[in-house]
Amino acid sequence: MMQTTYKYDCTPSFACFAYKFTGKERDTESGNDYFLARYYSSAMGRFLSPDWASNPQAVPYGIYTNPQTLNLYNYMRNNPLSGIDKDGHCGGPNDPCSKVTVQATVAEKPTAVKNETIKDVNGKVIAKATGVEGKIVETVKVNGQPAPDVKVTEANQNTDTKNGQQVSSTLAQGKGSTNADGQIGDTIGIYHPTDGSKAANAAIKQDFSGNTWTSTDKQTLTLTLPSGQSCSATSERTLTNAGGNGYTLTTTQPVVAPAN
After folding, report:
1. Taking Cα atoms as reference points, which of 80, 90, 98, 92 lies closest to residue 38?
2. Residue 136: CB partners within 8 Å, gap ≥ 6?
3. In Å, how far are 10, 13, 17, 20, 96 from 6, measured between CA atoms?
4. 19, 12 contact by CB (below 8 A)
5. Mean pLDDT of the residues in the chain
6. Is pLDDT above 50 for 6?
7. 26-35, 70-79, 160-169: lowest mean pLDDT where?
8. Cα–Cα distances in angstroms (integers) from residue 116 to residues 31, 167, 219, 246, 256, in the given order
9. Which of 20, 105, 191, 217 is least crowded, fewest Cβ atoms below 10 Å from its Cβ?
10. Per-residue confidence (pLDDT) for residue 10, from 0 to 100
């Protein structure tokens, strides 16, 4: 059996460097990787100095709703699969999610609906219901351009109250993909199960019009880009008739961060 031995030319005219983690040069004396802005220790799995920005900031590139961004020593917000840090500014402009924005718009004001088919995230019918619902449309953009074919999965933390008292509820969470305009719709509602009869639907309608109902929902979307990178987008939505002028639907604007 033949065996080929490869030799590397390390003469001064062809300098040899040890390129290691994400292609960065490893210092042979210290064993640390040079990321331009600072050094990274593969042994410890962290940068050796805190992150910094050209304009002085208390927490460079920090997003206060995402605790991972407040650690100035971690690599890619402790999610190394989400991207590559090109220059040592962890989670800064080289973070793929820093180029992603999500805009939430109330597309349909709340209206009464009856005999709706409610499905879970896998498309399985979990109930037939009557109630009140509205619609929010989220527009996903990358570098300011609409992003089609982004896979979207939602996770929700929901609280429903009737006249100020919390009531039990069942979440119906969905998934899908953005269309050619980078948009995906989301229905937000408060429902009661129904057998579809006029009497049952009339009783539900009276319940929703004669009492004060509020549904608050913290939604986290997981956005999987066509490149395979994942980001999260978190917002809070409120559906209520507490104002005395019928039902209203409001939303905060989603905060985008690398998916944990």
Report:
1. 90
2. 104, 105, 106, 107, 185, 186, 188, 237, 249, 251
3. 13, 19, 17, 20, 38
4. no
5. 83
6. no
7. 70-79
8. 62, 21, 22, 20, 32
9. 105
10. 34
Beta strand pairing status for 255-258 and 39-41?
A: unpaired
Residue 28 CB burial class (10 angstroms; 0-12, 13-18, ≥19): exposed
As a whole number, mean pLDDT of residues 28-46 equals: 88
Report the C-alpha gap between 103 and 144 in whole angstroms.
11
Contact indicator for 86, 80 with CB cutoff of 8 Å: no
CA–CA distance, 130 with 112 (Å, rounded to integer): 8
pTM: 0.67
Long-range contacts of 61-68 (CB under 8 A, 24+ apart): 61/89, 61/90, 61/91, 61/92, 61/95, 61/98, 63/255, 63/257, 65/234, 65/255, 65/257, 66/255, 66/257, 68/257, 68/258, 68/260
pLDDT at position 76 over 90: no
- Angstrom distance (rounded) from CA 152 to CA 41: 35
Amino acid identity of residue 91, one-letter, is G
R_g of the chain computed on alpha carbons: 25
Task: Tell me the residue type at 168.
Answer: S
Give mean pLDDT, residues 193-217.
Answer: 94
